[in-house]
Amino acid sequence: MRKIWFVSAAIFVVAMGGVASAEDAGDPTAVKSEDGKYLDKDGNPTFKVAPDGTVDWYTYSGFRRYHSECHVCHGPDGMGSTYAPALANSLKTMSYADFLGTVASGRKNVNTAQENVMPAFGDNPNVACYMDDLYVYLRARANNAVPRGRPAKHEDKSDAYTKAEDACMGNSEKK
Fold this sequence. Notes:
3-stranded antiparallel β-sheet; about 40% helix; about 10% strand
């Protein structure tokens, strides 16, 4: 049920035209924080990197999730491969809504010269439950806010994040 809700929400955001246009992914500057999640002026999730290089939890988690699920096709650190595009470049112009829709529903680009197919990940909880994390990490990479490699320092995971993660992954029993 949670997975269906998430995919439905992603499709709804895309159908409503998203929050930012595909030509302009928007200013990534964090203007607000809600329980450890940073948001830009349009309300889209974004990254926060402290002067000492400490990244927010979503950026760190996004790095971990990206390298467990996405890097096989899209290359390390969002840099692309001969098989799939560099997502660090794609996020320079892709809106949050387009990102959610593409990851949840997949994409097929077929022409006489090539056939590129990205599968839908809306039913994979290891991706669907962490789409904001993936978006934030790739947005940070797209804006050169974090270098290649594992972030050395990160903020702690908030209680609100843990609760949402447990609910999405079906681990909502009391501990």
